């Protein structure tokens, strides 16, 4: 059986740092509240003129380089913040990377986008449609956040991460396995940008064009759904929670990662985290965390790695892989 094997990755953060103190200066919030409730100290924002495509291209270029260069047959871009409602952002990203002619499309699964993209890439490879896929998670949340909404403005940040997946066999290091996806559209309104689509095309209420989230209810779903998806992925892989060396959860909230880890029975020191410095970067969260962790030496070849995500839709997903030896290839990214 042909399986998707991870062979390179890269992460990209935009340069503007927004600290909790910066937000407390203009919103009714405090550094203490944000740290205690989310684990976030700062997040990044793009400079004016930078959109999702630029972040995606930069992460994609790093991932391709780490994978030894060369082309990809398909470019899959997971994003909540495409540059325009139409067309998809992926074809332009592919062209900017010199991959004109490759299949290219966006995946919209909000914070679960990377795992949905991973499943899609694995499917393209298993079906023989593509031999090599560049999967990018890239977000410019600053474009859709309500600057006056303290409950979301403190959480989300901009960023991108990318991985290259090639055709290989299931017993190789880096082979993606145990993929689980799910959704529950009955709760589609918990995380939404209400206007700007076919249902509510334009609104005189500016908030309708901004991202909105019912935090508390979302929190409960996030913990339950990520735990269930992770357990399902472990069972499909034949691993017990104690076998997990590295737990890589979508960085929604440090308390959510802790709660899921506790429910799974994965010791806290096995959970990777960068939320303190980058906030919640939605579809970019997992690949960015993977790339940063390799560079920091906290994710090493042979680590049995569990990925889990949850996001708007509602959507969720999980997958496993034994971490491949990509550290030396990424040395240029330090
Ligand atoms: O990535 C996709 C999935 N996302 C998630 O899973 C996120 C899930 N939700 C969360 O992470 C948390 O619910 C939040 C971080 C969004 C909020 O934390 P919370 O502990 O659930 O707070 P809360 O919404 O229950 O609000 C508690 C209080 C409220 O005040 P009252 O009603 O008790 O007086 C809020 O108005 O905290 C208030 N509040 C804030 N206070 C200071 C909400 N945001 C802020 C803020 N600063 N930024």
What's the shape?
globular
CATH architect. name of the largest domain = 3-Layer(aba) Sandwich
Bound molecules: oxa(dethia)-CoA
The Cα radius of gyration reads 18 Å
**Whole-number average pLDDT?**
97
What is the number of E strands? 13
The CATH topology of the largest domain comes to: Peroxisomal Thiolase, Chain A, domain 1
Summing up helix and strand content along with how strands pair, one would put the structural category as: alpha/beta
Main sheet overview: 5 strands, mixed
Helical content class: 25-40%
Low-confidence sequence ranges: none
The proportion of strand residues reads: 15-25%
- In CATH terms, the superfamily of the largest domain is Thiolase/Chalcone synthase
Report the order of strands and helices: EEHHEHEHEHEHEEEEHEHHHEE
Write down the CATH class of the largest domain.
Alpha Beta
Describe the structure.
By secondary structure, this protein is of the alpha/beta class. The chain folds into 2 domains: 3-168, Peroxisomal Thiolase, Chain A, domain 1 (3-Layer(aba) Sandwich), CATH 3.40.47.10; 177-324, Thiolase/Chalcone synthase (Peroxisomal Thiolase, Chain A, domain 1). The protein has helices spanning 20-24, 31-38, 52-66, 90-96, 113-126, 150-153, 215-237, 254-264, 275-278, 285-296, and strands at 3-12, 16-19, 42-45, 74-78, 103-107, 132-139, 159-168, 177-183, 191-192, 212-213, 246-249, 304-311, 315-322. The strands form 4 sheets. It has a 5-stranded mixed beta sheet, with helices on both faces. The chain has a 4-stranded mixed beta sheet with strand order 8-13-12-11, sandwiched between helices. Bound molecules: oxa(dethia)-CoA. Residues 29, 33-34, 37-38, 111, 150-151, 154-155, 215-216, 218-219, 222, 252-253, 256, 280, 310-311 line the site of oxa(dethia)-CoA. The site of oxa(dethia)-CoA has 21 residues, from helix 2, helix 6, helix 7 and strand 12.
């Amino acid at each position: 059986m042909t399986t998707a094997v991870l062979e390179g990755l890269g992460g990209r953060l935009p340069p503007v740092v927004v600290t909790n103190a910066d937000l407390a200066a203009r919103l009714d919030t405090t550094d203490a509240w944000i740290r205690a409730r989310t684990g976030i100290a700062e997040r990044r924002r793009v400079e004016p003129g930078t959109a999702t495509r630029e972040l995606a291209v930069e992460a994609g270029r790093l991932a391709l380089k780490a994978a030894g260069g060369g082309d990809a047959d398909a470019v899959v871009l997971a994003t909540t913040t495409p540059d325009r409602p139409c067309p998809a952002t992926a074809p332009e990203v592919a062209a900017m990377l010199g991959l004109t002619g490759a299949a290219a499309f966006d995946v919209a699964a909000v914070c679960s986008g990377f795992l949905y993209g991973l499943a899609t890439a694995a499917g393209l490879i298993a079906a023989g449609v593509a031999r090599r896929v560049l999967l990018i998670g890239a977000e410019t949340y600053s474009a859709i956040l309500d600057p006056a909404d303290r409950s979301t403005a403190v959480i989300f940040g901009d960023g991108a991460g990318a991985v290259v997946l090639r055709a290989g066999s299931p017993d190789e290091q880096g082979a993606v396995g145990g993929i689980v996806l799910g959704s529950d559209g009955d709760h589609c309104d918990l995380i939404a940008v209400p206007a700007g689509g076919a249902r509510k095309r334009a609104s005189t209420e500016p908030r309708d064009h901004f991202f909105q989230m019912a935090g508390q209810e979302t929190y409960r779903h996030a913990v339950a759904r990520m735990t269930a998806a992770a357990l399902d992925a472990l069972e499909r892989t034949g691993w017990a929670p104690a076998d997990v060396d590295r737990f890589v959860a979508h960085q929604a909230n440090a308390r959510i990662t802790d709660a899921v880890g506790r429910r799974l029975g994965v010791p806290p020191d096995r959970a990777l985290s960068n939320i303190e410095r980058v906030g919640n970067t939605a579809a970019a969260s997992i690949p960015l965390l993977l790339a940063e962790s390799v560079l920091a030496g906290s994710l090493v070849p042979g680590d049995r790695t569990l990925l889990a995500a949850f996001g708007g839709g509602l959507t969720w997903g999980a997958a496993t892989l034994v971490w491949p030896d990509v550290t030396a290839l990424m040395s240029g990214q330090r």
